Fold:
Amino acid sequence: MAKVTFLGAAQEVTGSGHLLESEATGRIILDCGMHQGGDAIKRIQKDNFDFDIQNLDAVTLSHAHLDHSGLLPKLVSKGFSGPIFCTSATADLLRIMLNDAAGIYERGLARENLWAVALVVFPGGYGTLDELFETLTLIQTKKMKALPVLLLGRDYWERIIDFEALLEKGAIDRSEYEIFQFVETPQEAWQTIRDFYAD
Structure:
């Protein structure tokens, strides 16, 4: 008789995983998903397997979403070396999805172990504004200590962001406003960092 054990996504919609055990199929995991939401580092550290990995015969994936596949790297790193069955489309997407998940984890780990003394932001570039405002949010929520945010090229940044308006409307306070410093050269950037920490 087949036995199904629900390992995740029970009373929630994330972290899908089901262990199917039968004489016909052996021990197969259907999906190996990570729990999503909250702190990626704490979440992955807490996600453990409630089954013997060494006695697992195979993994079958329903699709590539991380809440169905995100713990595959951890499963393999813990010793699983059996086959992973999925459609070719899922396999193609996994290359993208798992690399993206690793990037999210690494960025979170970098933030947790942050030793940066400044954030230097260059004009343009994909993700530039995301990183700028993510850093501001981390400072505002006290998850990161204040550090100087050096904006290279005053003309560019004053056209893109109205820092005075952010201050006036209460989106940032005076201390947050003062972390933004315009610089034009590397020498000016170094001097701004020195001045910031000299106080």
Q: What stands out?
A: The first strand starts at residue 3 and ends at 8. The mean pLDDT is 83. The chain has two domains: 3-111, 114-198.
